[in-house]
Every structure is written in C-alpha cells, then in structure tokens.
Amino acid sequence: MKPNPIHALLLALVIAPSFARAADTDAAIAPFVDQQTILVARIDTAAIDFSAIRKWMDDGIKGSGNGAQDLSGPVTSFTNAAEKWLGDFHKAGGGTLYLVVNFAEKADDASFFVAPLKAGNDAKAVEAALASIKPQGMQTAVINQTAFLAGPQLVARLPQFKPTPRPDLAKALADAGKAPIAAAIVPSEEIRKVFEAMSPKLPEELGGGPITIVTNGLRTGTLTLEMPPAAAMSLKIRSSDADAAQSFTTLLRNLIQMMRQEAVRGGLGPQFNMLTSKLDPQVAGDQISFSLKAESSSQAASLFADSLLKARQQALAMQAANNMKQLLLGCIMYANDHKEELPATLDVAAKTADGPETLLTNPRDPKRKPAFVYHKPDAPLNKIPSTSKWVLIYEAYDQWPKNLCVGFADGHVEIVSNENEFKKMLEESTMPK
Questions:
Q1: Which of 202, 221, 232, 249 could form a disulfide linkage to 226, CB 3.0–4.6 angstroms apart?
Q2: Does the global pTM surpass 0.90?
C-alpha cells in the first residue's frame, strides 16, 4: 500500500530541517534521483560548529521550564558523541552528505543517505563511519566512489539505478546557495498525478478542499538552515500561480493552528505559540516564504529543550513501567509455583522474574529506596475479587507527581494522572470481609 500522499508531502515539509555545500557539488546526487524523488537534503558537514551548538542548546535549557537542567548531561554526551563521529567521517574524507527521500511503496525504499567520495578518500573508512550510525534495517555499500546507507533491497538495485533528469531539483538546490543545510522539496508531475488520483480531497481537519490545493500550491520548495551561533531558517515555496499560492497559504496556516493545538495538549503551548508566531507564511505572486531569524532562535532553543525534556520524561516513565511489568510477572510466576500465594517481597518477585538488579530501581527516581510500594493482599492471588482492578505495585512518592505508574494484579500497568482517582483505586483494592 502506498503511503498517504497528503502525509508524504506534509512530512517532507516537517522533516527537511532535521536531515539536510554549494551548488557545484550537487551534480554528485544527480545519478541517484528519478521521478519518484520528492526531497533531497544536503549537509555541509564542515560547517557544523559543535561548540556553538552546545551553547545554543545550553541557552535553551537555561531558558526552559523546570527540570530542564537535567538535560545538560545527556545533551553534552550526545554532542560529544556526534562530534567524534563527524571527526571520524572527516578524517576518512567525508564531506557533503545527502538524504534522498522517495515516494515509494516500501519504507525500505523511501529514503537513503549518499556520501560522494573524492579521489584518494578512504572509501572503507567513510562506509564504516556511516555504518556506526545506521538505523535498524539499513546497510552500507560503496558503489562507484560513492558511499550509501540504505535498505538492503535498495542497495542491491543501486548499481542498476536509472536516473531521470530533474532540472527542478537542480534549481531548488541552487536557490539555497551556500547554506550549510539545505533541502529541495520537488514532487514530480508524475507524483502529483498519483496524489490527485489517490486522495482527491484533503482531510476534513484541514478543510476538506481538493487535493489540488497541495499539488498546485507546492510545485517546488527550497529550505535553508543556518547553524548556531547565527541560527536561522527559511523556506521558499513556488506555486503554479498566484491563486494557488493564496490557497496553499491558507492551508499552511490551518496546519500551523492544528500544530498549536497539539502543542497545548502536549504541554508545549506557550513556547510553540511564541515560535510559530514568527512563522506566518508571506505571499508574493506565486511564491510563499517563511523565515525564522536569530531573534526567535532562543525561543526555538527553549522549545527544543522542552520537547527533549518531555521525551526524556516519557522514556523514563516507560522504563519505570517496564520494570513494574517484570515485577508483576515475577509475582504471578511465583504464585503459579506456590499455590497462588504471592511473594513476601518484591525482591523475591525480581528474582523469580530473573531480571537485572536494576529491576527494583525506579529510573524516574533512582535514589529512592524502596522505589516501589508493594500492596500485597492478605490472600492468595486467586482469591482477589478482580485482579484487573487490584493495585499491587505503584511508584513510591512524597508529593503527588504529574503522573504515577500503577501496576495491577493481572499484570498490566497504567499511568494515572489524577491523585484522587489513584486514592480511589487504592481504597477499592481491599479484600471483602
């Protein structure tokens, strides 16, 4: 099944900044694009200044919300690792790195990285550098002085790849000039026809108008990203005509409003609203432009820090829930082997589950001992009225957190955000007299 065409185009707009030297190097990518190519991003890796990136991130953390200071260590570790990788890549002779995104039926064929090599470059070392970061399901190869990171089926086809001239791509990348990170969004005429046939109308949440608002509104796009310390972003879109540009601009504004609503639900409303207030698309004839200058860069850094913090908090909550699930499994396994009697302590449950020593640690509060409260019933497991409602384990706490991991006697875990709701669950987890 082909991916949703609306999502594919909008995804190209969203992910381009995350992946993206001058135009004279772009001929190196021409042999690897065809009519299915919708986006090509390029990164001048020599233009990445990690000291400036660290300062930008640190400023964002300092200007962010409570708890963001906890990110300093992980951010430093990440940038140190990235800087080391880039050093290895450069030492081997790596320079410009490209990402090619295709409209493909299979996810393995949808994107791949290209690292053109010059005479004298250590191809195997460049390949090894790419291999050290390869996502799951991707592999590396060196073909005709070019290193690739792609899905295995695509790697197998690359030697026989038949490119298609894409003057629209060449122009879009040339329009980016010498920006260190640039992306060309170039859905071909063939792809636009496929989109129009597959999804004649936009989703209702985006107004439900005809898909031609997108296919005529986004003929080509050029995104440029300047790196810290002078962080800035600009996106220029060319439409089929002035009317198409106006219609597509309305759609983009609706999309930004939807994103603001999602940000509010995710707890990032104020920061995201301040940032997107600087992203109102401007129309001039058949062209639409966005820009984010240095005055909003600090807001972007703070938003990045807040998003990173929330992602980290969610990851820690998932780890805590996983520890709890294994402890619950240990309790159930013990009961199965001991005539339905539950273990006396969670230490016994952890040993029964044959888990690591960290099983009894809460990643969200690693210094607390004990990490979890064991609400053991004064009865065998099979005598509990409703195991799916009996609170058996929950995170220990002094003050109510924003959410609490709670484990039930049937082995499932829930995240409870309301303290009164949790207290009611706990009150109902009693044996009948």
A1: 232
A2: no
The packing angle between helices 50-62 and 294-337, to 10°, is 80
Pick the residue with more confidence: 154 or 272? Answer: 154
Greatest extent of the chain over all pairs of C-alpha atoms, in Å: 84
Backbone angles phi and psi of 222, in degrees to 5: -125, 120
Burial class (CB in 10 A: 0-12, 13-18, 19+), 391: buried
CA angle 296, 302, 304 (to 5 degrees): 100
Nearest alpha-carbon partner for 327 in 283, 362, 289:
362
Token readout for 81 is 């690792």
Strands 181-185 and 146-150: unpaired
> Alpha-carbon distance 8 to 285, whole Å?
26
Residue 95: Cβ within 10 Å count: 19
Distances (CA, A) of 190 to 12, 154, 194: 17, 21, 6
Q: Which strand (E) or helix (H) includes residue 116?
A: strand 111-116
Query: What percent of the chain shows pLDDT beyond 70?
Result: 80
Q: In this predicted model, what pLDDT tens digit does every residue of 156-189 receive, in sequence order? A: 888 888 999 999 998 898 888 888 899 999 999 9
181 three-state secondary structure: strand
Please confirm whether the linkage preceding 370 is cis (ω < 30° from 0). yes
Sort residue 354 into left (φ over 0), alpha (ψ -120 to 50) or beta.
left
DSSP secondary structure letter of residue 6:
H
Q: Mention every residue, 6+ apart, whose C-beta is less than 8 A from residue 249.
A: 217, 281, 283, 288
Element (H, E) at 407: strand 404-408
What is the rounded CA–CA span in Å between residue 411 and residue 388? 8
pLDDT score of 12 more than 50: no
**8 Å CB contact between 303 and 271:** yes
Closest CA to 330 of 305, 355, 298: 355
CA angle (16, 234, 10) in 5-degree steps: 40
What are the tokens at 318? Answer: 């998932």
Q: Give per-residue pLDDT as tens, 336-352.
A: 999 999 999 999 999 99
pLDDT digits (tens, 9 = 90+) for 93-134: 888 899 999 987 676 678 899 999 888 888 888 888 888 876
| 34 vs 428: CA distance, rounded Å | 63
Token digits of residue 105 = 């039926």
